[in-house]
Structures are given as structure tokens and as C-alpha cells.
Amino acid sequence: MSGRILTHKGARTLACCLVASLFALLTPRAAADETGATGSNASATRSLKTDFGIWTGDFNGMLERRMVRVAVPYSRTLFYHDGGRERGLTAEAVRKFEEFLNKKYRATLKRRPITVVLIPTTRDRLIPMLIEGRADIAAGNITITESRSEKVDFSVPLG
Question: 114-153, pLDDT tens digit by residue?
């Protein structure tokens, strides 16, 4: 069945609401050399972390970490990059999901919002990433099978 979202076992609460986030953009910045001067020869790159490590837990743990990792396969309609921007139905849904989470848990989060991060991968890596603890959610129109249901939780179909 299409239009479903997966989570690792134990994060069922999150699966009921999905839809996911921002990816790492590199931003060049001039760096100071040993003398403290900034020059064209001395440049460094600032970037967001792309290896989010291994972690499994429930939604409360994600709230505490302020991060939800969503594994997504590239697709012409669901997720793709266009001029350095994330596009597609899943990318838009993830942005809305991030807004929803930050609005709903505003009092709990105070001034440290939740970031929902899209992690592009191949379709065959979606479930293994959940099981290994490299993603919290997999969004990729995956058919429910008995063997998959034993490993991960599925959300209610979307439409």
C-alpha cells in the first residue's frame, strides 16, 4: 500500500503524525589565519552535521534531542533537489510536520525548536536505516508485508 510512513518499533506515536525537514547546506565562510587576519587564502567551510549517529528511542527522546531524522528515497514526485532546495511532496510535507511539532510542543521546547532532517537514501536502505538507528522515520510509499511488519511499525494510509 502506498502513502505510508515507517518508524522503528517503539516510535508509533510519531508515525501517526509524520511529514519531514531540512537538509545540510554548506556555507563558505572566511577563516582567520594564525595572525587573526582574514584573507582569501584562509577559508573554511561551515556545514551542518550529516552523520547523525546511531540512536533509537521513542518520540519523547526525539523531543529531548530536538531532532527527527527522516529517511527518504529520491523520486521525481516525492523528493528531489532543485537548485540546492529540497522539493517534492515529501519535502513539503516534512516542512509542515516540523511546523506542526514546533507549534504543538512550543511550551515544552521553549526557545529550542525541533529540526526535522531529511536524509536522502536509496529505497532498499529505508528499513535497514530504521533498524540500525540511523533514521527515526522512513517516508517512501513502502508496501506493508508480514515480514516488514515484524520489524517496523506502519502509519495509517495517507489518502
Answer: 999 999 999 999 999 999 999 999 998 888 899 999 999 9
d(CA 93, CA 19): 5
CB 155 within 8 A of CB 149: no
159 burial type by CB count under 10 A (0-12 exposed, 13-18 middle, 19+ buried)? exposed
- How many CB atoms are closer than 10 A to CB 150? 8
Report how far residue 121's alpha carbon sits from residue 73's, in angstroms, rounded to the nearest whole number.
5
Domains of the chain: 5-154 (3.40.190)
What is d(CA 147, CA 158) in angstroms, rounded to the nearest whole number?
21
